[in-house]
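During the no-cost extension, the postdoctoral fellow (Dr. R.K.) reprocessed legacy sequence entries with the updated structure-token encoder. One reprocessed record is reproduced below for audit purposes.
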Amino acid sequence: MTSTAEETPLLRDRAFVLFLLARTVAVIGSAITAVALPLLVFQVTSSPMLTSLVTAVQVVPYLLFGLIAGAMADRLPRRPLMLACQAASAAALLSVPVASWLGELTAPHAVGVAAVVATSFVWFDAGAFGALPALVGTDRVVPANSMVWMVTTLAGLGGPVLGGLLVALVGAAQALSFDAGAYVVAGALLALIGRSFDAGGPKRERQTLRTDIKAGLAFVWQQPVVRSLTLLGVGNSLTGGAVSALLVVFAVQDLGLSEDGRGVGFLFAIVAAGAFFAALALPRLTARWPLGWISIAALTINPVALLLTAIAPSLPWATIPLLLWSFTNTLTIINGIAARQLVTPLDLQARVNTTARMVAWGGTPLGALIAGALAESAGARPAYAVMSVAVLTSAVLAWRSPLRSRTFGTQP
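Re-encoded structure tokens follow.
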């Protein structure tokens, strides 16, 4: 990365703009799938448990492959790795409309596709964690991260609504072909970036894969900023997995929205709006408050917002609490990502970020499965209320942690 590139405004930096466009297109496609895939499983099975399984399998690959993917992404050229992941996801998604056309589509097939796409994402994410600092320079990581989240979540606002309309017009299975096309377009945009995805100075000499993994684990545990935010993120992910897994069930069974996709898409758009506002707010918050205080506030407000969502009698009453829940959930996540990228050396970015995300996101499949089991017997509302305890626990621990210090995170 040259000093000239680092001084270029982000929106005039061609490499960053192409990276941003690729992420935006991919997010629009993923937002369509986020509506279509659980709806497809729910339509086929009418089972909250099996519907929640879609969310669970989207995170399990991170637990299985996160450490290896992080170490390999610090070894391999990042661009080919990321392009291969985009191609694999497109192929898997296309298999759903093909199977539907042949009359062979089943719920296990749909869940399997979710697992393939999620596995590809682990490796793509590992490459992207190191690619962004390499493309923009460490001095621009926070504004670049915030811009990526802000623009892509803004795209995500319309994506769920579009997904709901597509499900209504062409069916849940056929709607997935649009996401497959989005992966192809996003891959083409990444291929057009002229700057290296592996810039940032010479890499440290590699030993064995096991040694590289241990180095990433050691940094996560020994660096107080990374360790604290990662461990506290587990409660956030447990609750997040529960909310995401049951959003379709909550919309249909408790808020009375139609299974055809229109109303459900709006509910997903509310969640995307909360994420957008979090990305918009983060640079302003970090300019005024210590990052530890930001996480404490977000974790404290989050369970209250979820409880208000659980008792909401109708969609209008659920809108503001769900928006606030999404805002605080996302703020906790992106605050942790920005902090990690700031304090982590470039040659450790993939390993540290995938390791930290693997731990922090480890609660997502467990939260999804527990919530699914609770909803199967008691309904989505009680499940949401019970699962708010997970993030409440993180909030209590955060108030007793080093995050309270004004200087927490100011020194790498």
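The domain at 3-196+209-404 is CATH 1.20.1250.20 (Growth Hormone; Chain: A;). Residues 14-45 form the longest helix (32 residues). The remaining legacy entries will be reprocessed before the final report is submitted.
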